[in-house]
From TrEMBL, chain A:
SUPFAM superfamilies given in the database record: ISP domain
Sorted UniProt keywords: 2Fe-2S, Cell membrane, Disulfide bond, Electron transport, Iron, Iron-sulfur, Membrane, Metal-binding, Oxidoreductase, Respiratory chain, Transmembrane, Transmembrane helix, Transport
Family: Belongs to the Rieske iron-sulfur protein family.
Purpose of the protein: Iron-sulfur subunit of the cytochrome bc1 complex, an essential component of the respiratory electron transport chain required for ATP synthesis. The bc1 complex catalyzes the oxidation of menaquinol and the reduction of cytochrome c in the respiratory chain. The bc1 complex operates through a Q-cycle mechanism that couples electron transfer to generation of the proton gradient that drives ATP synthesis.
Localization in the cell: Cell membrane
Pfam families: QcrA_N, Rieske
Organism: Nocardioides panacihumi
Cofactor(s) demanded: [2Fe-2S] cluster
Annotated CDD domains: Rieske
Protein name from the UniProt record: Cytochrome bc1 complex Rieske iron-sulfur subunit
UniProtKB/TrEMBL annotation, chain B:
Annotated transmembrane regions: 60-79, 125-144, 156-176, 222-246, 277-299, 345-370, 391-413, 425-442
Name under which the protein is recorded: Cytochrome bc1 complex cytochrome b subunit
Originating organism: Nocardioides panacihumi
EC numbers, comma separated: 7.1.1.8
Gene3D superfamilies: Cytochrome Bc1 Complex, Chain C
Amino acid sequence: MSADSSHDTGHEPGHEVINARTDALLADPGLPDHVWRPTDVDAKAEKRAERQVATLFGLSAICTVLFVVFYITLETGVDGPTIIGLGASNVALGVSLGLALLLIGIGVIQWARKLMGDHEISELRHPASSSEGDRAETLAALNAGLEESGIGRRPLVRNTLLGSVALLAAPAVVMLRDLGPLPNEVVGEYEGAGLHHTVWRKGMRVVRDVVGTPVKASDLEIGDLLNAEPEALFPTAENGLPELSGAELQIAKSKAALVMLRMDPNDIVSPVTRNWSVNGIVAYSKICTHVGCPISLNERTTHNLLCPCHQSTFDLADSGKVVFGPAGRHLPQLPLGVDDEGYLIALSDFLEPVGPSFWERNTKSPSEVAKGLS
Amino acid sequence: MSIDTSKVATSNKTAATASKPSKAGAAATWADERLGLAAMGKKNLRKVFPDHWSFMLGEIALWSFVVLLLSGVFLTLWFRPSMAEVTYQGSYDQMRGISMSEAFASALNISFDVRGGLLMRQMHHWAAMLFIAAMMIHLLRVFFTGAHRKPREVNWVIGCLLLLLGTLEGFTGYSLPDDLLSGTGIRAADGFIKSMPVVGTYISFFLFGGEFPGEAIIPRLYTIHVLLIPGLLLALIAAHMLLLVYHKHTQWPGPGRTENNVVGFPMLPVYAAKAGGFFFIVFGVTAIMGGLMSINPVWKFGPYDPTKVTAGSQPDWYMGWPDGALRIMPGIESHFWGSTWSWNVFLPIIVLPGLLFTVLLLLPFIEGWITGDKREHHLLQRPRNAPTRTATMVALMTLYGCFWAAGGNDIIAIRLHASINQITYFMRAAVFIAPVIAFIVTRRVCISLQRHDNETLLHGYETGVIMRTPEGSYYEKHLPISGAEAYTMTVRDRSSARLTEPAEADTNGVPAPKGRLSGLREKVRTLYYADDIDKPTAEELEEARHHAEHEAHALAAIDGHSADGHHFDGRHPVSEEPIRPEHHGH
């Protein structure tokens, strides 16, 4: 046992030493002696290991054959046979392929462990850096190259080159311009286009989602929650609305969806909410003002509506005010009325943008928003 | 290096004595005359790789990436990245006649009508999870053992970029089937983008080719998912591996293992066999997972419909932590001059991940700045021997865990019948408090373990043998640990030495000019090493050895009997030994 000594065994003349000082305190006992394995000294054990490895490879081949057999014989899909509640084809293919691969892997590793030489060998490390000589030579080469190019002596050439290459970034950026229209460019391109509009407009009937039938105030009991959409999404010969399809339909749906609740009119807190309700029926945008998930969970006793994505909770009795969660803004309310035939209609489009916040949004309180409808 | 292979399995020996030029030899000559392979092979065929179970974690990530490439190419043969509306006519009854995007219809086709298609889809998804999980655990291993120190900082940065790109690749991937869940994810992503001040709506309109959802997002995500990110991943993985080969792998300290060498098995045959075999194992495990464990059953969710959502909507687990931050962020929004600043979305989902990722990227550089350590390090450290570093990572893990748990606040509320409001309030506090507690506790645990190591070095290990002195007092007998163990434990720096020596003195002892931050740096360094327990000094070790010899002498009289403590330490056969030996005559 020596005093603290630097710990740098393995020096060779000419070998650059790594910049490392690890004070090891004790003398390095050196690599332990190699111990022969049973497979090295016992011919029987060696044969046994050889057979094990070959057996593993053989079993793998059988699994591969089984995979092909299963591929041909087992029917896929919902009508196919099942095992443990899962599709038999998927289970059989997965397990046979998995075992075929696994057995090869285990076999190869077993081969390495039992039969291949297991001598640990030692290799010298070199510092990650180049030698001083290499550095000097590289620097000299670099300087010679730069000198010959004359880049230092000819600032005019250098600067015009730098300028022109830098300018090439412009086409790369400019060419991305047609990825999409600007937010204000789509306005008027199709029904309800743009961030500030939806397909709702004055007099448009409220219809049930999926089926598209109009709704009468008397259809709803107190406490009933209804997912609704504008009639524009269900054009018929009778209502004479234009056909929507593809992206336009999806965009219209993603902004115009409604959630409606009938509550006791006396429970309504906010005057705006009361004004825009019909017999206690209120209609709000279904699109969460947080990041835009469709809101769907209703708490019956409180008139609170919860977004299943991030749990923002809105009070439908009080202008869709946020009562809990990460949303920063109330849920936009749609002013409701009744047409001649007694069906619920919108009195206008939403008076403020629906869905998640965005920078250009001019956000106002519900009572200020309400002034827009007059 | 010559090796005694006299006894290595006889079958190995014959190959080495091949005498006449074989066909393989001719092929090798042909190749070498054109590619100069021999020079490269000479260096690398017997390259040494050290062995330790924890070095396998990065390999899992590598091999699962290969599985991802293979299964991914298979899926592209049938998947149609199109949002054109079609009416499903495939074999899944519940969906027949329903309008959906071509992307979703082809995902159903792969799941139900292509034989092995569901298997490949599930393998692809499981391999993706494995890929990201393995990268994370590999990152933790590297950091906890100090493998990120010089000269490997650049490889740390590459590894972090791989994790970031892998996460984005995962997100773009699970968005492609255009089912209800993935559409909900894209819708939320649109909300995230729109929260960015000034440019949010523009980026959203450019990405979606107009208003959400449009018809462009799936084909665009597809290009990103199958070309852009995989290309970057492949290039970065290549760079990661090249640097690994150049630096040579780190190793644990031990007898014969120094900063200047690398001890282990040669690439050919042992390491090639083990690593290659491990590829088959990872591949096989993913296949079995794909066969037995259902994942992302898109047919249960149905096609994307912007008006629908499923309760308990959650992203894949690796996207869970920013989602958790989003859930517990208070709903703060500012409105100035007709503009809206949604801090409630922008801070947790855009700023926070960027910030934490930057911290992760900078960790080796921050540590290097604090310690002022400019040496190369090839020997790994035990986590306990760098208490502040270990505690820092555990604190970060705790922060991650808190956010991640917050991402499941609805599930926790349902399972534990707890109030979601209370869970959210709890999590808001926990993300600030829990990492601090974790930091302090981990640091103290590390320091206690350092103390324990010193005890073991000085007084030996606990034998479990209770001795009674003639006076009637009892003590537990300790025995010295082996020389190899003692050596391994003492290979480490003294933190006290690092604190006192000038950090940046060059080889001639000229101190570096002091920067403006040097005062702060001194303070942080003192805190970094504060309360570290140094290993014993040579004098202390010598004294302890004397003491042990003295004790051994005193106990020599009963040596060779059960009571010497050697016999029940699990290292010696005891079958012949009576518990209470016959009395020896004096």
